[in-house]
Amino acid sequence: MKNPLRYQVSEYDCGPTSMLNAMSYLFAREEIQPEILRNIMIYSLDCYGQSGVLGQSGTSRMAMMFLSRWLSGVGEAGLLPIECQYLSGKSVYLGEQSLVVDALNRGGVVVMRLYMDGEHYVLLTKREGDNIYLFDPYYMTENPFGREIEFSLEQPCRYNRIVPFACFNREEAAPYALGKVAEREAVLLFDTRNKLTAERTIEYFI
After folding, report:
1. In DSSP terms, which residues pair with 190 in a beta bridge?
2. What does the alpha-carbon distance between residue 6 and residue 89 come to, in Å, rounded to a whole number?
3. DSSP line for 134-190
4. Which of 171, 194, 203, 206 qualifies as a FRET site for 141, CA 20 to 30 Å off?
5. What is the pLDDT, as a whole number, of residue 203?
6. Using one digit for the tens of pLDDT, what is the confidence trace for 120-171?
7. E strands present in 41-135
């Protein structure tokens, strides 16, 4: 059984929440071992806030890189059929040639760092045309974004926002913008049992 995706419980835990949501989206809850949940929480929330409190600046890029490599190791060990790839810098953008869109086309999901009121992690679950369906773990009951970004609470297992490509590719500090190219990052995640090859992706979209 697949669980509904979850919302963060504080102002800081968007990173681990989005990684846990990636697990929930890709795998049945019976398949997800407690070690995976434990280590996602242990390895995240590693940034100190201005007051010196651990976790108050959320999760670092280094932690996300480590988590992606650790989860790849879990897959290689045969503990879960998972495959991950960490991206950074100019390889993180939305477009027909981007690895992010390619991952969504092939049945994967993407944990991506972008901008809201500050740096923020969300889970990208689907591409349709020039729109991305994503689950933002920051709970809201009303749409503060206007008509450009669609807001929905009706698909709790799949998405709660629909965002155009153009919103992501901005370098300024705007909602769902990826920001400065040098600071971008994303983690691609696949259930290897369902991962489409390039040939199967072409057939799927035809």
Report:
1. 83
2. 28
3. EE-SS--SS--S-TTSEEEEEETTTEEEEEEHHHHT--SS-TTB---GGG-EEEEEE
4. 171
5. 46
6. 999 999 999 999 999 999 999 888 888 889 999 999 999 999 999 999 999 9
7. 82-88, 109-115, 119-128, 131-135
